[in-house]
Amino acid sequence: MEAENKLLADAVFEGGGVKGIGLVGAAAVIEERGYQWANLAGTSAGAIVAALLAAGYTAEELKKLMSELDYSRFKDTGLLDRIPVAGPLGSLIFEKGIYEGKFIEDWLRELLRKKGKDTFGKLIIANERDDRYRFKLRVIASDISRGRMLVLPQDIIDFGILPEDLDVAMAVRMSMSIPFFYEPVKLQYKKENQAQTVYSGWRHTK
Predict the structure, then answer these.
(1) Three-class SS state of 51
(2) Cβ–Cβ under 8 Å, residues 99 and 75
(3) Residues of the chain above pLDDT 90, percent
(4) Mean pLDDT within 146-168
(5) Burial of 76 (0-12, 13-18, 19+ CB in 10 A)
(6) What is the largest CA-CA distance in the chain?
(7) 62, 76 in Cβ contact below 8 A?
(8) Which of the two ends of the chain, N or C, has the fewest CB atoms closer than 10 A to its terminal CB?
(9) pLDDT tens, 90-124?
(10) Helix or strand or coil: residue 136?
(11) Which DSSP string corresponds to 54-93?
(12) Main-chain dihedrals φ then ψ at residue 180, nearest 5 degrees
């Protein structure tokens, strides 16, 4: 009877940089009203919030994490970027983005590991028979090479990776490949005898 009386909520969190802080506030209000999270989805900053909630963090815990976070570290540069004047331009031309995005991916991965939820295989909803709701979390990214939206983890199978094995932090990083800001994530797409390099926001063909 207790399970039947649970208040369950599905949520989709949109992107928008610092809007992620506002999303945490909205999640806190929902939790204060007694709701528990059932199915979650997000893109970009919203994917960070959705992933952490799906892993078992409460909105109050996220508030604390966000207040302690040094957001300047999100702008992590590589060796090329550190060359005065020419570095950032070269990074845009050759790497398709100024910042690496490694800090935020590593930061998120560590938080997910603390909850034991670093892969999508650990976010499977027990006894769920409908494949649409099999995973507690969905992350939205873009595959510009083929002009389509990627819904992760299920669409990762096109790249030779089992959905259950996909690293959650990597999926979120793919969703955060803001053009020119973060370097895109590169994956190998295999179909028949054709191999193509696919980015989550850009295209590069060999």
Answers:
(1) helix
(2) yes
(3) 47
(4) 91
(5) middle
(6) 65
(7) no
(8) N
(9) 555 445 666 667 888 999 999 999 999 999 999 99
(10) coil
(11) HHT--HHHHHHHHHH--GGGGS---TGGGSTTHHHHHHHH
(12) 75, -20
> Reduced to 3 states, what is the DSSP secondary structure of residue 114?
helix
Segment holding 140, helix H or strand E: strand 137-143
User: Tens digits of per-residue pLDDT, 23-52?
Assistant: 999 999 999 999 999 999 999 989 999 999
Alpha helices (runs of H) in 33-183, residue ranges in sequence order: 45-55, 59-68, 86-95, 102-114, 168-175
Beta strand spans in 153-193 (E): 180-182, 186-191
pTM of the predicted model as reported, rounded to 2 decimal places = 0.83
Contact 39, 10 (CB under 8 A): yes
Residue 183 sits at the vertex; the CA angle it makes with 179 and 186, to the nearest 5 degrees, is 110
CA–CA separation, 104 and 176 (whole Å): 10
